[in-house]
Amino acid sequence: MSASSNGISYPCKSKVGEVVVSRPTKSGFLQVPKSSVMPASLCTVNDETVDDGSVACLKIGFEDDELPVSLLTASIILINSCDIEQLEKIPRNLSETFLAFLKNLWAKVHNQMLLANTMKSSQEGQFFINELDVLSFLKEVRNMLGCPIIYQQDIRVLRTERQMKREVHYFQESLDCKKDFHIFNIDDVLKCEEAYKEGYTVALRGMEFRFKSIAAIANGLASIFGQPSVGVNMYLTPPNSQGLARHFDDHCVFVCQLFGTKQWTVFSQPNVLLPRLYDHLDSLQDAEAENSVTDCRKFLLKEGDILYIPRGIHHEACTDNGDPNGSAAGSLHLTLGIEVEPPFEWEGFAHVALCCWNQSCKQPQDASSESVLEFLGVISVNLLHVAIGLIGDSDTTFRKACLVGATSLPSGTCYWLDLDQKTIFSHLIDKINTESRFSEALRIIEVAIRKNEDPFQQIRWLRLLNAEGETAEGHDWNFSFMEAAKLFPLCVKHKDKAEEAFMNVKSRFCDEVLFGDVVDRYKLLLDKYRKARKQYMNGMISLQCTS
Length: 547
What we know:
This is Bifunctional lysine-specific demethylase and histidyl-hydroxylase. There is one protein chain. This protein is about 40% helix and about 20% strand. By secondary structure, the protein is an alpha+beta fold.
């Protein structure tokens, strides 16, 4: 007979039995949705549901050995013919022995299930592994993405020369050309199969925009860590090969091994500071690469394993040459990157706290010199924003991910997490109080104006805290660049008064700001980012041909 899985047919020389799997009900039956039936996926060929819809029936193919069929059939008959009380009378050692048997059986057939899409038949009817049908896969992705596929943005095809320890791109000419980007055509897609055979890794970016299932996983992981987004890449690596060279990322990564095995080397010495999104990493990579090899740990990831790598930690991965039997040892894995956007670092939380405090308090006013005092009060708040940014440039705590918006956990853990976040916030306020310098912040603004740059560009996202058209105390939360350039000479002219106003604002902010007053506004900002991300993700997925 011919079995089919995900649209790929292959011959199956097996006997077929029917297995009923269900979940406990009042009558003692076990009823499980088809989507969650895992142990019954032994050399899966297809599934059907009985007419009454109460149980899921799977037609399972078994090769040669009938003992597993008999044992599994007997256990299912036992389960479906007994009530809960009768099942509880089964001797514990017998249950444990049988569960151990099922575990080993599942481990064996799970591998067969994962390899189902990569099996082809020879004329003799024997199975052999063709790694992954890279060509078919890329054609499928090409249709899902719609044209164009842009090299480096959507796909990379590369390998690391181990002796030289440098990356080589299969489409190197497209990188060397003067064009801003290289659009993949059908010929390039066809070349990817040849590249894979030559040891090149095929890396696909933005998988959360291609598949609903991956998007759901990414959104769930982002919620757990209180971040607006998680990016997902997929890496297909042939045997005895290394894709990316040793490097570190500007985001934390969860590596999920889907197929085959891969050897990961994680180096112990981190960067002095956590790298941030959108920072230029190239110079930092080169400067610290040699310092990171003093100590390392190796992890062999197998199917189903997950490895966490913090941002800033150097790592590399490669596949081996196969087992003694000569079977191929390629690898397919996903990386889920927790992208900590600037507003959702602890520095971002400090900026939100200052903004909220400023909008809730009244600025001092004096009728005799209203314009000068009014200006000094506003510029002091903005100078403090700049000072906070300077601390964030040198303090790792300010760069860490803020978990205030993390998904609620069980009560005990949630209480601990909330207490931990409050402790970190108190530490930040102490740092701001002791390390904020008027002269340093003023110098940053002066240098930016001389370069015709916006000194507040890095925190423009704070405008999202205000409702449309609203301002605080008759002013926007911040100066525009033109206002800063116009009023800066006035600040220099009244430098002593400006510094006094700055110290007063800093002292009042650090004494009066409360963690609880910031949380709601911070979560509102997080919701705005998530909403925008979700709209973009849904729009991208709607363009794909996925279900």
